[in-house]
Specification:
The complex is a heterodimer. Chain A is built from 8 helices and 11 strands. By secondary structure, chain A is of the alpha/beta class. In chain A, strands 1, 3, 4, 6, 7, 8, 9, 10 and 11 form a 9-stranded mixed β-sheet that branches. Chain A has a two-stranded parallel ribbon with strand order 2-5. The longest helix of chain A is centred in the N-terminal third of the chain and has 20 residues. The N terminus of chain A is likely disordered. Chain B is an all-alpha fold. Helix content of chain B is about 55%, strand content about 0%. Chain B contains 36 helices and 6 strands. Chain B has a two-stranded antiparallel ribbon with strand order 1-5. Chain B has a two-stranded antiparallel ribbon with strand order 2-3. The longest helix of chain B is centred in the first third of the chain and has 18 residues. Classes of the chains: A alpha/beta, B mainly alpha. The interface between A and B is large, with 86 and 73 residues.
């Protein structure tokens, strides 16, 4: 069976997100909303957890990656460590099966991609299993944090929320917890507001039909409503952006396996 | 027990270069695909069957290989076509992973038949490499290992009894073997001297397998060799094969410096097996492994060999595997199909015509043109003729010779669409427009039904650019999409019926504007011609409606009220919902009152925009707001470019660009220079208006200031504030949102519209 789910669900996500956004990002309510946002991920421990993460993180997806050219003090690596498939009431784990080499001392973030079939149970047992599997990759050598990549639809957000809360409890206190976030989640959908995250990385590429609107806002100097989304940005080498704040940590996706020259170009473009 | 057979294909997938495409974010809109650029259009069976259409160098090499064969007069039988389609779907379709957590179940079920056995252990089939700074997991225990263990246990139970101590011991040893699948080193103890010979043989094999799974490859090899030398062991034939497997594992997972030595030994061992008739039962598996070894150990030699086997005339039963290996190996030499920079092919490999042709047709440097011409001159083959024609420009000295040869290609040849497309392109570049037009009309009249839709659309694109008047332009600007696709990952996979709404289903077979036609309507022709297009009956109603609304609002925005009023009867017919407001608008006398009436209408019809849509476009009713802020104007056709906006993902970086990218939108003969200049001026005027919500707020406030008693003003202010939520905004929008909000509440506090406007919007 071909996996078709992401596309349709992503459309639903966007609609839901914008509906919520329209209710929350109005001028006179803004102060209330922002007051709520200020507590997101702002505790001292989360700052400490990610303080060791370099300003540039290369995403190493499921393909052979030979990253022995990076300077571990300036560049970290977020590698796809596994994909978890939620099928019915099962969780099927597919670990990384492509080689990844990094220099000694590289700060690593282990990424878990979650995919769902058409009618996942989204049960507490699945939460336990997902937490267990992510906990396993968190224990890999040199891994200082985990990142979850899940385009949860509106109906899946409670499951995702509860899973992330359980995951935070299960992870060692020093392990960072990051998620990738649709830009619309960062714009106004506050389902993330009480999540115990260290960061939500807004994905500023392959944004589909929201692209023009979101980039237009960001280029005019506006920032995301969610504070979780303000300290990092997810970008791709084939969609360069000119307005990423220098203070933001960037996660960079490359459409091909990384090379030294591709990495250098990123460092020059974003002055990191 | 270890596996008797191994799937080389699976190993290839794991150990070589198969990588998942990247997943995208979204949300995404449905695209109309007029011409496929990554692969041919669906169903792929048609392409496999020889309907290759105009060859796109941007297609993946597995398709170009098929094109090459057809161009050279070869074909594929039904079995081979099936194999090709299987390969393409394997590569294009994301599939759920094989459910490997289920694999241990036969073994776990079999061991439950032994009374008093320990509780079933948890078995995971994957194991980490366990090397510093390397983060990779490999599939350690294959499905048939568990099946073989279960079958062997069944056989031993029959011989020794389920309740015997020997069987309990056997199960315990096998549990230890499988404990190595995911971690550690768990070795069963040696069999006692009193144990039956069969169980002693089993134990030797279990110990060897445990060493294999735990990564002790040297020890495993030694033990398998010993078993293969033991004439009394039932595992002696399997062990010969497992010696080779152990060596391959060692090459994959052991020290890099020993890789080639281990592969060389594996190759020798596999050749020995294949040469021994007594080992016939393992020959098929050994041949697969040998193929894998040679791919890794002698890639150049293997690529050369595959380039020949893929072209042989007799049926190729290994076509799928050969083509898979060939394209993977070629990726290794010159970069994959997505690579922005192709590497140069080693000279030895260019001696293979297929490899040379593929590398040349996908290259974009001037050297590749010269090479294609040289090869064509040497061979006079159709494949090289197509390669040369596809690269040459209309002013090159060799054009006449190539075109003259191309003219001899008949409509039954698979090369006909490509040769025709490029000879027409060359005629256009040489200024022979009438000749090109005549040829195109002939092709579209006589051969359209034999062409893939993608190719038809390419010819329509050429013909559109040769339009002598607006009617012709509109005739050829409208095209039937080859497919609809979400295309969120660049794979151009057609959407399945279950993935699209009823509105899209009704669009099947309907003509839409492609990007080139929409680009011209939006940027290259002036309002005067757009008005004519809106009134022309060449377009079907749904496209006329789109053109008419664009022309009308463009006229309003450009303050051309005469043109706008001329369009009212057309709009009344095409958009009856607008009639009442259009009547009100038509009655206004003064320019500013006319403008406000038009903007008042526009506020209530957020789907009206000064551009026409390419492809599927906006699907929401004109008088309803669209959830993704595609309201008023938010189109790249006129909005200022966003910083960081890059060229399309499809074409960026690819050296083999789709041929659809090669059109000159300024070459329309029916648009005069003065009209082209007027179009540019109008376009700049529209761009200067800024974000639609800002513009609408500004205009409504201006009218409210001038005519505060106009009863429409409170509602217009309310609607203007809404545009700042549902339209495309910028950093100035908040200011305009607040200004309209403040004016509404200050001047009309008791108005129901003020009550309906509790907020203004910041972003």
């Amino acid at each position: 069976m071909r996996i078709r789910i992401p596309r349709l669900n992503r459309k639903t996500i966007g609609v839901a997100a914008l509906l919520v956004a329209s209710a929350l990002s109005v001028g006179v309510m803004r102060s209330t909303v922002r007051k709520g946002c200020l507590s997101e991920g702002s505790n001292a421990s989360s700052v400490a957890r990610l303080s060791a993460v370099p300003p540039i993180i290369l995403w190493a997806w499921e393909r052979p990656e030979q990253l022995d050219f990076i300077d571990p003090t300036r560049v970290g690596v977020a590698f796809l460590s596994q994909t978890l498939y939620l099928r019915g009431d099962q969780v099927v784990a597919q670990p990384r099966r492509q080689p990844l080499n990094v220099p000694s001392g590289t700060r690593l973030i282990a990424v878990t991609r979650i995919e769902v079939d058409r009618s996942p149970a989204l049960s507490s047992e699945q939460i336990n299993r997902v937490v267990q599997k992510i906990g396993e990759v968190a224990r890999s050598p040199e891994v200082i944090g985990v990142q979850v990549d899940f385009d949860a639809t509106r109906s899946q957000q409670k499951f995702y929320h509860d899973m992330l809360v359980a995951l935070r409890r299960a992870l060692p206190g020093s392990t960072g917890l990051s998620i990738t976030a649709l830009a619309s989640w960062c714009q106004g959908d506050n389902w993330m507001s009480d999540l115990p995250l260290d960061e939500a990385v807004p994905m500023l590429f392959r944004m589909g039909i929201e692209r023009r609107q979101i980039l237009s806002q960001l280029s005019s100097g506006a920032n995301f409503n969610s504070t979780l989304c303000r300290n990092s940005a997810g970008i791709s080498t084939d969609e360069p952006l000119t307005f990423i704040p220098r203070s933001a940590r960037i996660y960079v996706f490359n459409t091909k396996p990384w090379s030294s020259s591709a990495m250098q170009k990123v460092m020059e473009t974003y002055q990191r | 027990m270890n596996s008797r057979t191994v799937c080389a294909i699976a190993l290839m997938g794991v150990l070589l270069l198969s990588s998942q495409p990247s997943l995208a974010c979204g949300p995404f809109s449905l695209d109309a695909v007029f011409t496929f650029t990554v692969h041919p259009e669906y169903p792929l069976d048609s392409f496999a069957g020889g309907k290759i259409g105009v060859i796109e160098p941007s297609h993946a090499r597995s398709y170009l290989f098929v094109a090459y064969r057809y161009l050279n007069g070869a074909s594929f039988n039904a079995e081979e076509q099936k194999a090709l389609v299987e390969l393409w779907h394997d590569r294009l379709d994301f599939t759920w992973p094989e459910y490997d957590q289920e694999w241990p179940k036969p073994w776990l079920a079999a061991r439950q038949k032994v009374p008093g056995v320990t509780p079933a252990p948890t078995i995971s089939v994957d194991r980490h490499r366990e090397k510093p700074n390397e983060y990779e997991t490999y599939l350690n225990c294959q499905k048939d290992a568990f099946e073989t263990a279960a079958a062997t246990l069944e056989a031993r139970i029959k011989e020794f009894g389920a309740e015997s101590a020997e069987i309990k011991d056997w199960v315990s040893a096998q549990d230890q073997v499988f404990a190595n699948c995911s971690e550690g080193q768990h070795l069963p103890g040696a069999a006692t001297a009193e144990a039956p010979p069969l169980l002693r043989s089993d134990r030797s094999y279990q110990i060897a397998a445990a060493n294999f799974y735990s990564g002790n490859f040297d020890e495993a090899q030694k033990l398998f060799v010993a078993i293969s030398d033991d004439n009394s062991s039932p595992w002696r034939q399997t062990a010969q094969y497992l010696v080779a497997r152990t060596l391959i594992r060692k090459a994959s997972l052991g020290p890099k410096e020993g890789r080639d030595t281990a592969l060389g030994q594996a190759e020798e061992q596999l050749r020995k097996i294949i040469g021994d008739q007594k080992l016939a039962s393992t020959h098929l598996a050994a041949a697969r492994l040998l193929n894998l070894v040679r791919v890794r150990l002698h890639p150049e030699e293997k690529l050369h060999e595959l380039a020949h086997s893929l072209l042989r005339k007799e049926q190729n039963e290994r076509l799928k595997q050969d083509l898979w290996d060939y394209t993977i190996l070629l990726d290794g030499f010159i970069g994959d199909d997505d690579s922005s920079k192709k590497r140069e092919l080693p000279a030895s490999l260019t001696q293979d015509d297929l490899t040379d042709w593929l590398a040349t047709i996908q290259a974009s440097d001037s050297g590749s043109l010269n090479h294609a011409i040289t090869k064509w001159q040497q061979q006079r083959s159709v494949a090289w003729l197509v390669a040369a024609l596809g690269k040459i420009d209309g002013h090159h000295a060799k054009v006449a010779e190539l075109v003259s040869t191309g003219a001899k290609i008949g409509p039954d040849s698979p090369a006909f669409p490509s040769v025709s497309f490029h000879t027409i392109r060359l005629a256009i570049e040489s200024g022979k427009l009438d000749q090109a037009r005549t040829r195109l009309d002939e092709i579209l009249a006589k051969h359209k039904s034999r062409l893939p839709t993608s190719s038809v659309n390419l010819f329509l694109g050429q013909r559109m650019m040769l339009a002598t008047d607006l009617g012709e332009f509109l005739t050829f600007a409208q095209r039937v999409p080859a497919a609809f696709s979400w295309n969120d990952d660049g794979r151009e996979i057609p959407a399945e019926a279950s993935e699209v709404g009823e509105d899209i289903k009704t669009m099947q077979g309907q003509k839409l504007f492609d990007l080139d036609g929409a680009e011209i309507l939006n940027k290259r022709i002036p309002l005067a011609i757009l008005k004519e297009a809106a009134m022309s009956d060449v377009l079907p109603v749904h496209l006329r409606r789109d053109v008419a609304q664009a022309a009308w609002i463009r006229a309003i925005l450009l303050n051309d009220y005469k043109t706008a009023k001329e369009l009212v009867p057309t709009l009344n017919r095409l958009v009856p919902q607008m009639r009442l407001l259009l009547a009100e608008y038509a009655q206004a006398q003064q320019a500013d009152a006319t403008k406000f009436s038009a903007l008042y209408l526009w506020l209530k019809f957020p789907g009206v925009e000064p551009v026409v849509d390419a492809g599927v476009g906006r699907r929401t009713q004109l008088n309803q707001q669209e959830s993704f802020r595609d309201n008023w104007w938010c189109s790249s056709a006129i909005s200022p470019e966003v910083a960081g906006e890059s060229e399309s993902e499809q074409t960026q970086g690819a050296t083999a660009r789709p041929i659809t990218a090669r059109t000159d939108a300024n070459a329309l003969s029916f648009v005069s220079t003065a009209q082209r200049d007027a179009a540019a001026r109008e376009h700049n005027q529209l761009k200067a208006l800024g974000a639609a919500p800002n513009y609408l707020c500004r205009e409504v406030i201006a009218w409210a200031t001038k005519s505060p008693s106009d009863p429409r003003v409170p509602e217009a202010l309310h609607l203007a504030v809404r545009t700042t939520r549902y339209g495309c905004t910028d950093k100035e929008t908040a200011r305009w949102s607040k200004a309209a909000f403040d004016l509404l509440h200050r001047r009309y506090p008791a108005s129901p519209w003020a009550k309906k406007t509790p907020y203004w919007f910041k972003d």
